[in-house]
Design brief:
The chain folds into two domains: 95 residues, no CATH class; 202 residues, no CATH class. The chain is built from 13 helices and six strands. The chain is elongated, with a radius of gyration of 29 Å. About 6% of the residues have low confidence.
């Protein structure tokens, strides 16, 4: 009897150990081994592992959303389960449902679940690219131009969600831009607007070092005003520029317009703390951006620090102040001098 119980226990133990092997879901590495190849799964289901690995969802794993997948997929003929955004993002869903966008677009129309990232790891240009899917730029310029001066410039320098949501902690994000290359010669083309520089472009310029070394020359992970000025004064960087955008660090999905966004002083003011907080965002190979903090006061050094960013009142340059005073002084010389001479020679005129 004891021997039978022993064999039975061993059998149950063997079954218990074997069960996870039979029912275990496929691991991420196995999923990507197929889905990284468009030839195997088709363009609609291909996933770039380099870009996916740094997304917000990558840490959860494939089976967190596709829990029905097995080791026999896709030969088992079973439909693949898909988690809904509502399963995890109930609070965001309720907020978005109250917005004007909810009746026109679902979550997936703006967010690819295999590429989704937080606002601090994408560029302001990428943020606006989502909006441009539905909102034509020319139409936006016309509608904003009825009340907003230089509407086209504002739309270029601001992510839409900086104004059209309850975004918090708006900071200045500086991006490296470059002259576009001439299609025939391959040389930088003058006269054309600068465009956002990509990872590969900057990797060549940094000579295989970290891209951030183009500005962060001492490699301490922090950009001083001296390093910023050195970058802009260096003639080797004449085909590169820093372009600034006011970007949010925390976003909401209500897409309303807060009252203070109608007030010009929200951006155009002298010295508010948010306007003094700056980062340089460097592109990574996976499509995300790495931010390095910039010494306080970068926006106050417009002449050498940030040539493609200007906030009236907040961006003051001592050099420009002196030039302005010289112009005012020169303009006063003639009327003041003429009046003085007339006063001193008044007796002679009598």
């Amino acid at each position: 009897m004891g021997r039978k119980i022993g064999f039975l226990s061993l059998g149950l133990a063997a079954l218990w150990l074997a069960a996870p092997v039979e029912t275990a879901a496929m691991d991420d590495e196995s999923c990507v081994s197929c889905h990284a190849d468009a030839g195997m799964v088709g363009d609609a289901y291909v996933i770039d592992p380099l870009r996916y690995d740094t997304t917000a969802h990558a840490g959860l794993g494939c089976v967190a959303c596709h829990e029905s997948v097995t080791w026999d997929h896709p030969d088992d003929g079973q439909p693949l389960s898909r988690a809904g955004c509502l399963d995890c993002h109930q609070d965001i869903y309720e907020e978005y449902a109250q917005s004007g966008h909810a009746q026109y677009a679902d979550c997936g129309d703006c967010h690819n679940p295999h590429l989704v990232r937080g606002p601090t790891t994408i560029s302001g240009h990428d943020m606006n690219r989502n909006c441009a899917v539905c909102h034509e730029t020319s139409g936006l310029v016309r509608s904003h131009g009825s009340w907003l001066p230089q509407a086209a410039l504002h739309l270029e320098m601001l992510p839409c969600i900086s104004c059209h949501s309850g975004s918090e902690n708006i900071v200045i994000s500086l991006y490296l831009t470059r002259r576009p290359l001439h299609p025939d010669s391959g040389a930088p083309a003058r006269g054309l607007p600068f465009e956002l520089a990509g990872y590969e472009d900057l990797k060549l310029l940094s000579e295989q070092e970290k891209i951030s070394s183009l500005i962060d020359t001492d490699g301490d992970g922090f950009i001083s005003l001296a390093e910023l000025r050195s970058f802009n004064r260096n003639r080797d960087n004449r085909n590169l520029r820093l372009k600034g955008m006011l970007t949010p660090e925390i976003v909401t999905h209500d897409f309303g317009i807060l009252a203070n966004r109608w007030d010009c002083t929200f951006c155009h003011a002298s010295g508010p703390g948010a306007m003094q907080t700056s980062f340089v965002a460097f592109p990574r190979q996976d499509g995300s951006f790495e931010r390095l903090a910039v010494e306080k006061g970068a926006v106050l050094d417009v002449l050498y620090g940030t040539p493609d960013f200007y906030i009236v009142g907040a961006t003051r340059s001592a050099t420009l102040n002196y030039i302005g005073l010289a112009i005012l002084a020169a303009g006063l010389i003639m009327p003041v001098g003429h009046g003085t001479l007339r006063f001193l020679t008044r007796k002679n005129r009598r």
